[in-house]
């Protein structure tokens, strides 16, 4: 016989052998059993980092992993990261301690209610079938593409279980559903594409596994293509326009605005991708095919629920080849040209665009990019190249958080396969996740941290300071992150002039081993293009509200 915790570990080991966690009373027995059974265990220093690291691990590796914390404070510390994973529909298994079966103690909270509030399905193990319940939870996470909480009541964790047999994991339905276009939907979408003179395909994260089919479809109908932030540059296609939305070049946006039919595959069409309604021409037909149950933007003219690989394959068979391709007539010479950025701005600090430009030149080409949230968020995706599918993640954007992206570096390192992990962060977010700088230094074999240090919460300065709100609550005393990095055992480089980038180049040329933190002292006065779109949308909304109140 084995303990409840050992039974859980035994059941999960073949399907999720990577754990990110922080030990406490509620998960001590589970982590003991997991380590003894050979799981790869990565310790973090704050509970939110356990979930964020597991979130990133899946986004890069496409494999399920486990996050684990204790009950109570350990659990609640991880809730923001759990909400992000739920909003982003990231499969992971959150194995956590819970109150004993006898009921809540004075220091317990109603974790079941919180799970429901953040839309994370919950499974509670019992003494009789703990392994089977663990497998059901893992299958649910994969099938529904969501984080699932597996709760271990405190009084059961070390008890013996009589469970001897486990269900076959395949019988529990771990494979996500792959609905197909019905004949009517296929005919209607095919007809719209056949009638297009200037078709465009916009692909998102949901189309990553369908990339070859999407490329073939685009070539057949003579379409231009572009990708959302999390799927940028997915296609090796001569008429791919790059990233779409708030991080796009103006030429990218100009071309998409000329399209008469836009086919969206596996993209959620949020307000940033849609440029607050300005991405698609008003006269164009917008088609969305996605696993969602309904259209995710009111601008969509035709929606169908379908697996992208299946939909693209069927469309390839049913859509006639275009007689001419508008893509071949387009001037794409300046498509990806962006401002280099000034050497210094009027206040004597670095231009963040120039920081991004210099780092693109210096960084190892074989890289994984991870992002925290904040005003700086566009500089990496806009200026830095990637190394293929699943090589850029932004943990925190689905829930509009900052600080969660720091732990992404830990999860990315476990899935990087020899690539250099590059983190972009702001000073505010990095201070929130500072505890896990130690985790980064301990676990990342080759990594670069670029901190856009403007001594402020930059997004708030641009969004609210610009309309007259007092900026004092938005400011941060300038922190010497390079010194903090050195204290943790990393290489720390303070970058205040272009010449200082030579030190970063030397580190890369020496082999890029360990972690190098680049503390870039940037101006707070250079506003990102996507922020201009946000401000313009806010002005329009305020104007509309004012006119209604008159």
Automatic annotation (TrEMBL):
Question: In this protein, which residues make up the domain named Thiamine pyrophosphate enzyme central?
Answer: 187-313
Could you say which residues form the signal peptide? none
Question: Could you give one GO CC term from the UniProt record?
Answer: acetolactate synthase complex
Record carries keyword Ribonucleoprotein: no
Q: Which GO terms describe its molecular function?
A: acetolactate synthase activity; flavin adenine dinucleotide binding; magnesium ion binding; thiamine pyrophosphate binding
Biological process terms in GO annotation: isoleucine biosynthetic process; L-valine biosynthetic process
State the family named in the UniProt similarity comment for this chain. Answer: Belongs to the TPP enzyme family.
Q: Which InterPro entries match?
A: DHS-like_NAD/FAD-binding_dom (IPR029035), THDP-binding (IPR029061), Thiamin_PyroP_enz_cen_dom (IPR012000), Thiamin_PyroP_enz_TPP-bd_dom (IPR012001), TPP_enz (IPR045229), TPP_enzyme_TPP-bd (IPR011766)
Q: Reply yes or no: does the keyword Protease apply.
A: no
Residues in Thiamine pyrophosphate enzyme N-terminal TPP-binding domain copies: 4-105
Q: What species is given as this protein's source?
A: Glutamicibacter soli
Q: Identify one Pfam family in the record.
A: TPP_enzyme_N
The family database entries (SUPFAM superfamilies) matched by this protein are listed as: DHS-like NAD/FAD-binding domain (SSF52467), Thiamin diphosphate-binding fold (THDP-binding) (SSF52518)
Pinpoint the Thiamine pyrophosphate enzyme TPP-binding domain residues: 374-519
Keywords attached to this entry: Thiamine pyrophosphate
What's the name of the protein?
Thiamine pyrophosphate-binding protein
